[in-house]
Amino acid sequence: MNTSRHQPPPDEPSVLDYVKSLFRGARLQIPGFAEEETSSTANDQPEHLQPLDSDLDSLLAADTAPLSTAVSPQPPEPKDEPPSPFPWSSLLALFLALVGQWLLEPPPDTQLGIALFVAALFALGWGLYRGEWTLAPLAETSDWTDPLTYRPVMLILSLGLGLWAFTLLDENLFTTLNVTVWALAVLAFIGALWIRTPGSQNWLAQIAGFFKRDTWTITISRWTILLLAVTALAFFFRFTQTETVPAEPFSDHAEKLYDVYDVSQGDTHIFFPRNTGREAIQMYWTLWVANIFGTGLSYLSLKLGTAILGFLTLPFIYLLGKEIGGTRVALFAFMLAGIAYWPNVISRIGLRFPLYPLFVAPTLLFLLRGLRTRNRNDFLLSGLFLGLGLHGYSPFRIVPFVVIAAFVLYWIHSQSKGARRELPVWLAMLAITSLLVFLPLLRFWIDNPEIFGFRAFSRLSTVEQPLPGPAPVIFASNVGKALMMYNLDDGEIWVNSIPHRPALDVVTGALFLFGFVLVLIRYIRKRHWQDLFLLVSIPLLQLPSTLSLAFPGENPALNRAGAASIPAFLLAALALDGLATSLKGRGMRNVVAWGLTGILLAASASQNYTLVFDTFANSFRLGSWNTSDMGRVIREFEQTYGTTETVWVVPFPYWVDTRLPAAWAGIPNRDMALWPENFASTVELPGPKLFILKADTEDPTVNDQQSVDALKELYPNGVLRLFDSDIPGHDFWIFFVPG
Fold this sequence. Notes:
Elements: H1 15-22, H2 57-60, H3 88-103, H4 110-129, H5 152-168, H6 176-193, H7 203-212, H8 222-239, H9 251-264, E1 271-272, E2 278-279, H10 281-293, H11 299-325, H12 327-339, H13 341-348, H14 355-373, H15 376-389, H16 399-412, H17 423-437, H18 439-447, H19 449-460, H20 471-484, H21 506-526, H22 529-541, H23 543-546, H24 565-583, H25 588-623, H26 627-641, E3 647-649, H27 660-664, E4 689-694, H28 705-714, E5 719-723, E6 732-737
Parallel strand pairs: 3-4
Antiparallel strand pairs: 1-2, 4-6, 5-6
C-alpha cells in the first residue's frame, strides 16, 4: 500500500491518535462518505460488470462510497506518556501573526504588519522544530486496480444519444425533446462505466430497507449537535437581512431580470447573449426561486437565489476538509467559510458569482477522492459537476485546466505508483462525462464562437481596448496582487467587496498564512502530491482574475477569484486544527485548547458580521443609486391613478439604470427612459404624468436643470418637488403633471 506518512514507533502515540481520541464515540456518519475502518486489499475487487440488459441495478447504484478509503485502522489507546511541552512558540507565532494581520486592516501599517508576520514565521519555525504545530495526517492511497470494464450496450447508446442531442440543440434553445435526449445521453454514459462497490446496495434497495424497519433509532451525538450549531450559524450569516444587504441593484441586475423574464415567456435559451453573454443556470434557478418563494421577478429573487447557491457550497467544503484532514478540519473549514465576509458578499449580490465556487467544490472533492481511492465512480461524478459548472459562471472555464494539473501532479508523484496505466482512462472518463454535460453550450460555441468567447477575450486581449503595457509584465503584476488579496488588498471593485482591505478577516488571514507555510513544509518533507496541488490550486483558480490584462484595475476581483477561497479556507482550517492538536493534553491544557479555539472562531465571526452587515452594507448604499425609492414613487402613482404608462425616468450620465425603477415597481420588462428630445411626444397623452429626474442640490454640474426647465415650458401647471434621500447625493426631482 502506498503511503506518504512515516509511521511512529509502536509505543509512541501519533498526532492521528490524539485527533481521533478527541472525537472517539462522537462521530457523524454521512452516507456515501463514511470512513472505512479497514484498508482495502487486493481482494476488494468489484464484481465483473455486465451489459445493461442484464444488470439494470448498476445504473441505479447511488452509493458513491469508495472501494477503499484507505484510512488507517483504529489506533490503540494511547499509553500514559509524559505530557508534551506546552507550545509556547506556536502561541507566540499566533499572537504575532494576529497583531500583524490586524495592522494590515485599513488604514494599513504595511511595514510593521509584514515585519510581525516575518517574526511570526520564525516563531512558527521554532515551534515546528520542537514538534509543537503538526498538521492532520494525510490519508493513505489505495492500491486497488481498476478492472477497466464497461457495459458496451449502454456505452454505444450514450454516444448515439449524444450525437442526436447535438443535432437537436440548435437555435440556442432548450426544448423538451433535446433536453430529454441530452439527459439520457449523460445518464447512459455514466451507467456504462459505473461500478458497484463490494457489498453495496443500490439506492432504491437502501430506501426500501429503511422503510421496512420495525423500529427506527436516531442517535444524536455531541458531534452532531456541534455540526448542527455551526450549520445554523452559517445559515444565519447567509440569509439574515437578505432583503436589505445589499440594498440596491445595478445594471447587471436589470439584464438578469430581462433574461429571467424571457425564460418565463418561453424563450428557453442555452446561452443568453444580452450584456456580452451569460450562461443559463442562474436564469432558470431564479425563475424557480421566484415561483417557490413567491418573490416574483425581482431583485430579491436574484439575491435569495444566489444566497442559496452560496449556502449549498458549504457541505462540499466540509467534505473536502474531511478528505484532506479529517472531521475536525472539515468542521473548521465549514465554519470559516460559512461566516466569512468574502463568500458571504459574493453570494448576496444576486449575480452568478457563487456558481464558480459551488461547482468547483464538488469537482475537486470527487477528483481528490478518486485519485486517492482509485475509484472511477468519483471521476464520473467529478466530470458531472465539471460539466454543470460550465453552465454557471464564465470564470469556471479555467477549471478543466485545474483538473488536468491535478492529474499531472498525481502522475509525477510516487502516490500514483500502480495506477499510471489507468490515469489516462480515468481522465478520459471524466472529460467525456463533462463534455456530454457541456454539450448544449458546445453546440452554441461552435455555431457562435465570437459571442461565446467575447466576455473572456475582452479582458484577456485587445478586443475592447489596447493592453496598457506588455502582457507578461501585466500578468506578473496581476498574479502578485491576487496572491496578496488574502492578507492585504482585495482590489477596488466596490459592488462585490469592501475596496482595499484584506479578503480574509484577521483570524482567518493569520491562519491561512500559517496553513500555507505548514503545508509547503510538509510537501518538502514528504512529497505528497495533494499538498502541492492544494497550494498550486490557489493561483490556478485565480486565473480568471489575473488574466484581466486589458483591465488590470479589475484585478484582484473577489467574484472572478471566488473559487480560490476554497483552498484558502482549507489551509486555514488545517492550521487551526494543528494548533488545537498542539495544545491538546490533560487537565487545563484541554481547557486552553478549546477555549482558545472558541475565542478565535468567535472573534472571526464578530469581525465578519461587522464587515458584511455594517461596512459593506453602508459602502454599497453610498455607491449605488436608490432606485428602490423611485420604485416606491412609481407604485404610489399607480395606486392612485391606476397606470404606469405615463411615468418616465429621464436618463442622465452615470445615473440610474432606467430599467431598475420599473423592476422595483413590479414591471421587469420595461425601460422607463424618456430622453429630453422626446418630451414633446408626451403632451398628447391623456391623464396625469410623472417624470423623475437627476438632482443634486449642492453641485449644479450633476443636476439635470435643463430637463427640468424643458418640462416646465411644456407643462406650466406641473409641480416640481425634491425627493430628499437619507443618503447624501441621492436626491432626485419628481415632476408631476395633473390630468
